[in-house]
From TrEMBL:
Keywords: Hydrolase, Metal-binding, Zinc. Belongs to the peptidase M20A family. Its cofactor is Zn(2+). It comes from the Archaea. GO terms for molecular function: hydrolase activity; metal ion binding. This is Succinyl-diaminopimelate desuccinylase. The keyword Hydrolase applies. SUPFAM superfamilies: Bacterial exopeptidase dimerisation domain, Zn-dependent exopeptidases. InterPro entries: ArgE/DapE_CS, Bact_exopeptidase_dim_dom, Peptidase_M20, Peptidase_M20_dimer, Peptidase_M20A. Residues 195-293 form the Peptidase M20 dimerisation domain. It comes from Halogranum amylolyticum.
Length: 402
């Protein structure tokens, strides 16, 4: 067992200063160039030889951007490699802020700003942990990936890491998303989230029959039938999992019809479908088809899924074993740093961790600083948790890779 006294300790002031600078740079998804440049320069100034990793998706989004990657090389090529992953993009700036949404203001142990909690706090944690680990002669490698477009429709930054093989030599991953606020159950930091549900998006077309609006009985109203279908899907039974809980269904929108005095002949329905381990794409499609069959609609219904840049882009569910060395090392590090046992939980929604835990097949743990109002006005992160997470990550890395 590694001597915990020899584990590196991050500089608390530097960590919060870094976070404040990250928050002060607006970075809605697809608009991350300035913050990416800042991350690169911060790492470069400290001698970590960062590299830009280009992200391109020309067909649907026409997006061009860059991840930042850096590696600490260990002394033993047979030792494991630990991936530290976080995203610097945010949702679009919310208009309801009563102050500058990128102020970085600190008050009562809370740092405010769009993306402060989701997840620039976590990015600051892994950046300063990575910097502290550089002074340690580790046997294994540490790969830091600060990525773009997690909040966008396809998670293009981490998708590109996987697609280009940058994580092929990694053995495990830590993603510092805020965990407790989006956990399936009530947990408090320090908390280790050991898995997450997955997600599909039904994209459904309903084809009715047009008629004059004064004689609706002569047509088939696609909007009405789409509404019936949305209600039935909302009540659909889903799978259950002992760790991840239940799947869920949430109709997101129904649209159709535009002409006055005409029965709408077409309607479009988008439905969120969160899934647990054991629910495949084929299962999800069949479940919706069974609902359609049971309704006896007059309309023709085409059940598809949201268009994606590639067929293998998916948010699959995953669970990491509690006995995996990554989990036990993080638990021991939590006790050493925070003096308490960690809570354990599972994430209710999706993110880049799904790509790593499912698509890349990496044992993946979510451990991040918590806050409130994520994606909304008044978002903040607890500054002491940002520092605590950085120290836990650094301590666990030494346990795993020394």
């Amino acid at each position: 067992m590694t001597d915990t006294a020899s584990a590196p300790t991050v500089d608390a002031d530097e960590t919060i200063d870094l976070l404040q600078e990250l928050v002060r740079i607006p970075s809605p998804y697809f608009e991350e160039h300035e913050v990416v440049e800042y991350v690169y320069e911060w790492l470069d100034e400290r001698g970590h030889d960062p590299e830009y990793h280009h992200v391109s998706e020309p067909d649907i989004t026409e997006y061009e951007g860059d991840n930042v990657v850096a590696r600490l090389e260990g002394s033993d090529p047979d030792a494991p490699t630990l991936l530290l992953n976080g995203h610097v993009d945010t949702v679009q700036l919310v208009e309801d802020w009563e102050e500058d949404p990128c102020s970085g203001r600190i008050e009562d142990g809370k740092l405010y700003g769009q993306g402060a909690c989701d997840m620039k706090g976590g990015v600051a944690s892994i950046m300063t942990a990575f910097d502290a680990l550089a002074d340690r002669d580790l046997a294994g490698d540490v790969l830091l990936t600060v990525v773009v477009d997690e909040e966008g429709p396809y998670g293009l930054g981490t998708d590109r890491l996987i697609r280009d093989g940058l994580v092929d030599d990694c053995d495990m991953a830590i993603v510092t998303e805020p965990g407790p606020i989006l956990a399936q159950e009530d947990v408090d930091n320090p908390a280790l989230l050991l898995g997450a549900r997955g997600r599909f998006l039904y994209d459904i077309e309903v084809h009715g029959r047009a008629a004059h609006g004064s004689q609706p009985e002569t047509g088939v109203n696609a909007v009405v039938e789409a509404g019936r279908l949305a209600e039935a899907l909302d009540a659909m039974e889903t799978g259950d999992h002992p760790k991840l809980g239940s799947g869920s269904v949430c109709p997101l929108f129904v649209e159709g019809g535009s002409q006055t005095l005409s029965v709408p002949e077409r309607a479009h329905l988008m439905v969120d479908r969160h899934v647990v381990v054991g629910e495949s794409r084929e299962d999800v499609r069949e479940q919706a088809a069974d609902v359609v069959d049971g309704l006896g609609l007059e309309s023709a219904v085409e059940i598809g899924f949201r268009e994606a840049p590639a067929d293998d882009i998916r948010y699959g569910p995953y669970v990491t074993d509690e006995d995996h060395p990554l989990v036990t090392s993080l638990a021991d590090a939590t006790r050493a740093v925070a003096g308490v046992d960690p809570d354990y939980g599972y994430f209710s929604s999706v993110g880049d961790f799904n790509y790593l835990g499912d698509r890349a097949g990496l044992p993946t743990v979510i451990l991040g600083p918590d806050g409130e109002n994520i994606h909304g006005a008044g978002e903040f992160v607890y500054t002491d948790e940002v520092v605590e997470v950085a120290n836990i990550v650094a301590d666990a890395a030494v346990r795993l890779l020394d």
